[in-house]
Amino acid sequence: MFLFLTVVQAIVAAALVGVILMQRSEGGGLGIGGSPSGMLSARGAADFLTRSTKWLAVAFVVLSIALAAMAVEGVGVDGVESTLDRSVTPAETVDPLGGPGAAPAPDAAPAEPVDPLAD
């Protein structure tokens, strides 16, 4: 049921985005041609898009609340680990500044300098 409602909410969200993007910023609607009166006029399209936006937004909020309620019911307290394992000890202590107790640094420098241009 949770998966089904999630898919329905995704479809409602996509439809809501589409309906909002089809509206003019002044509230004029689509402005598609047709008869001057009726559903295909600019005024009829604006009314339809406004009503569609309202009902899709209501459906989105209701689905969000329902999904949140279902998610709270599905989560059990037993699955949450609230304690930390503090018995872990470091393998060895290493001083990054090379003070007492530091591991000896490997000798990376060669004994005599090498001249790459010498033949």
TrEMBL record:
Residues 94-119 have a biased composition (Low complexity). Belongs to the SecG family. PANTHER family: PROTEIN-EXPORT MEMBRANE PROTEIN SECG. GO terms for molecular function: protein-transporting ATPase activity. Pfam families: SecG. Its main location: membrane. It comes from Qipengyuania nanhaisediminis. The keyword Zinc-finger does not apply. It is a multi-pass membrane protein. Residues 88-119 are annotated as: Disordered. One of its GO terms (cellular component) is plasma membrane. Involved in protein export. Participates in an early event of protein translocation. The chain crosses the membrane at residues 55-77. This is Protein-export membrane protein SecG. Keywords: Cell membrane, Membrane, Protein transport, Translocation, Transmembrane, Transmembrane helix, Transport. One of its GO terms (biological process) is protein transport by the Sec complex. It is found in: Cell membrane.
